Amino acid sequence: MNVHIGSRPSLLRNVRISGPSARFIPVSGPLDVLLDAGRIVDIAPAGALRPVGPIWDAEGRWAIPGLWDHHVHVNPWALFAVRENVHDATSAHEVAVRMAAVPPDHRGVRVGVGMRDGLWQSPPVLTELDAITGDVPTYVVGADLHCVLVNSAAARREGITAPADGMLREAPAFRVHASLDAISDDELDAAVSAAAARAARQGIVGVVDFDMAWNIGAWQRRGAAGFDTWRVRAGVYPQHLDRAIAEGWVSGDLLHDSGLLEVGSVKVITDGSLGTRTAACSVAYPSGGHGELTVQPEALVGLLTRATGAGFSVAVHAIGDVANARALDAFAMSGAHGSLEHAQLVGRTDLPRFARLDVTASVQPQHAVDDRELVRAEWASQLAAAYPLRSLVDADANITLGSDAPVAPLDPWGAIATAVGRSRAGEAEPQDGEGIDAITALGASTERGSRAAAELLPGSLADIAFCDADPFASDVEGLRTMTVGATMLGGRFTHLS
Predict the structure, then answer these.
(1) Which member of 2, 90, 397, 400 lies 3.0 to 4.6 Å from 354 by CB, making a disulfide possible if both were Cys?
(2) In the chain, what's the furthest Cα-to-Cα distance?
């Protein structure tokens, strides 16, 4: 068969299957997999199935269920590639100098991303930023998306007054995000399509999109234009909940007749982040303060109750231990169902509540290593569990893995490797006792998470990643460098090497 992106073979030859799905296969060696209507209908030893249509030879590649990234901010992630990345800058002065050398874009502004100001020795100063960057509106988005550094020209463009350090945090920063991402639909959708194709090369078949714009409309538009690279669950923020209810949407509703795009959860942000020292914690930060709850407990219960009554699942952002405790309280009191996003600092008595309340822990393994130095500096006195993963699994919580892209790269194999090794590339591992096994990590990277991991069996969706090595037999570095020869979504190729 002359295969290409978009081809739909009926028979896959010379496929290897390992991991949990292999327990149902009574023979070893290469297999044939028969597909029909986007699903697996038969699996048998190679050569045992009569072809009924086009054939594709997998050449002994290892088939696994297609991977999901359960936490992506699609629009800023797609635009990340065309913005100046300053993640390795060590001071505000260095950031200003680097940004001053960036040519303004077609709107006459400079945009930087990846700023990690929590690691700087001294805070930024607006007057110094202005002196270096001049009259060109200059923005630098924090790595965690919870802050934006602006010069005075950028502040004037936004109609605001810049603080003395030029740093906008939380709600003001989110408003600036929306302004920066307000480009033409055609330009944005082209960037999203290109980024989705890159993700398909890594075996990604689905994402949960928590973009802060009116996400339902964006994905309806993309579906109508033929987007077919991923399955997408499009999140809804509280500021759009009234509109979503008025238009009759509920979680799970299809946004396009392709069946790939659906309404996701209502996303509620209840505290800040570690990087901005605004995550709500029981023990004060070394510089003072306990962070902040951006939604008070009573209001959170009311919001979750309303969303649940209207037919929505919920996804609650909680990073500090106080925010996690209050979020779990709200799930208990409202009867809401869904996920707790991040769970970066969790009280030890709160760990079992995830399973009891059937709340999914949606975590981003890369943050645990990216934030290691911040944890040592800012959370050294905390009594709660920092970046728990093994602890959540041991407490029988359902786990899903994601990236929080563009906060971390959309790299499912990096996330899986980090979940197992809790280490950076090239480091001795494990770095702590919170690593999990590869079977759990791979299951947490499928559609429903670790407790209901997707498998390759007759009747399963033909959402498949074809790996060049067996991920279930790979060490941490093998997982981190895994290559995917082909990706299939509903029996149709979205990637071929």
Answers:
(1) 397
(2) 74
> By C-alpha distance, which of 441, 315, 422 is closest to 371?
422
Length of the chain: 497
Rounded distance, CA 350 to CA 338, Å?
17
Residues 76 and 111: beta-carbon distance below 8 Å = no
pLDDT tens over the chain, length 497 residues? 678 999 999 999 999 999 999 998 988 899 999 999 999 999 999 999 988 889 999 999 999 999 999 999 999 899 887 789 998 999 999 999 999 999 999 899 999 998 989 889 899 999 999 999 999 999 999 988 889 999 999 999 999 999 999 999 988 998 998 888 778 999 999 999 999 999 999 999 999 999 999 999 999 999 999 999 999 999 999 999 999 999 999 999 999 999 999 999 999 999 999 988 999 999 999 999 999 999 999 999 999 999 999 999 999 999 999 999 999 999 999 999 999 999 999 999 999 999 999 999 999 999 999 999 999 999 999 999 999 999 999 999 999 999 999 999 999 999 999 999 999 988 876 678 999 999 999 999 999 999 999 999 999 999 999 999 999 999 999 999 999 999 999 999 999 99
| Distance in angstroms (rounded) separating the CA atoms of residues 253 and 244 | 11
Residue 347: C-alpha distances to residues 283, 323, 351, 352, 425 (Å): 11, 10, 7, 10, 29
Structure tokens at 216: 């339902």
H/E element holding 186? Answer: helix 185-200
DSSP characters over 252-274: T-BSSTTS-EEEEEEEEE-B--T
* 404 closest CA partner among 201, 210, 113, 265: 210
C-alpha 9/C-alpha 217 separation (Å) is 33
**Nearest 5°: phi and psi at 440?**
-65, -40
Q: What is the pTM of this model?
A: 0.90
Question: Rounded to whole angstroms, how far apart are CA atoms 268 and 317?
Answer: 6
Query: Environment class of residue 106 by beta-carbon count within 10 Å: exposed (0-12), middle (13-18) or buried (19+)?
Result: exposed
